[in-house]
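Mods, move this if it's the wrong board.
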Amino acid sequence: MQNLKSKEALIKLFNNQQKNQFYVGNSTYKQRLKKLNALKKAIEKTYRTKIQEALYADFKKPFTETDLTEIYPIISEIKHVKFHLKSWMNKQRVATPIALLGASSYVKYEPKGVCLIISPWNFPINLTFSPLISAIAAGNTVIIKPSELTPNTSHLMKEIVEELFDEQEIALIEGEIETSQELLKLPFNHIFFTGSPSVGKIVMKAAAKNLSSITLELGGKSPTIVDKTANIKTAAKKIIWGKFINNGQTCIAPDYILIHQTVKSELLKELKKQISNFYSNNPAASSSYCRIVNEKHFNRLKDHILKAKQSEASIELGGNFNKDENYIEPTIISNLPINSDLLQEEIFGPILPIISFQNLNEAINYINSKEKPLALYIYTKSNKTANFIIHNTRAGGTCINHNIIHYSNHNLPFGGSNNSGIGKSHGFYGFQEFSNKRAILKQHTKGSIEFLFPPYSKLKQKLINFTIKWL
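Not the wrong board. Structure tokens:
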């Protein structure tokens, strides 16, 4: 493919996909299946080792973790879509009211058209190809703009896309922020963006100029509530896994813990033990612990730790770092000032604040004082407590007695609410997101409504009155 960073080249690519959208949109189930199978083979077999190597080169992501969080989600998503796609593409029959006697109705899921996917750096394979699967299933043409912060992986994804697809159907454009800005000027039918709320607002503003529909997968501070009935050892094990996988650079990672004060000491003890079990007493030497993606994000996290130390917060574990490797030690902090940055901003790194509470309403009020999170996690043995929290908070998704794994269930919608996102993805919800639900009504015989056409009369008024009251 030619260098597509120039404005003129981007417009040309967009126009070519726009001209080709009906050909792609009218593709059959088998044709779409062929594309999905090709992508599955590429990710699972042909490029698997290269994907592992690229992610390790970008931020030392362990090969096993790449398999678990990048390869597996894509393969399982494709399998799910393949199993259901034929039924999703069929007409969805709906009832027709008796007032429209002689007609039948159905919904047709038609492609939106030319779509833009802007994907992030933290799970570049997963969060690029997952929405692409939905876009292919729905029959769209697609331009992909991956993050420039993981250049090795972005370049490899470009190689994969160019090998598998014609650029008039699917194309991947590398480039800096200026490339994204130029793409956002184009009148895409749909834009799927994954990233921070601050950039999501920019994307939404740009989309509004063309009335493009959008899906925004954003983030926020995802709380974890641990009550006094919880199995503390199990909770600690799951929280540490969910928090420190991908070095904490996960949009649905537990951002902070709200712990009942009576079990705070016990939880801290188990959290420390689990970090040692997972990453040894020297995480810097662990082959299971990756790194911060770049110097900018390293400095941001380092400053958080230094400010916490200056504020006399309690560094329960960790707090060390190495700028030469963009290494931040797994860090647990308690007794933070309520206005500290760590309690105001999404952390997106391996720092875990602990806040204690005396009664459940304190925890709920604290959560509700902030923007709606992308995820909320609850550890308790009490169904009553879990239901009370769910009924009195709002979040994109929730796990009870676990964290982050709701992402892996393709039967569940994934996405946020307001500041943490707009729209849903995965499975049928992703297919819907890239589709227009087109309402179609077909008249088979003369309909009763025709008896009510002008000119109006007393008899027709009586029929209208009857219809209003009874039909």
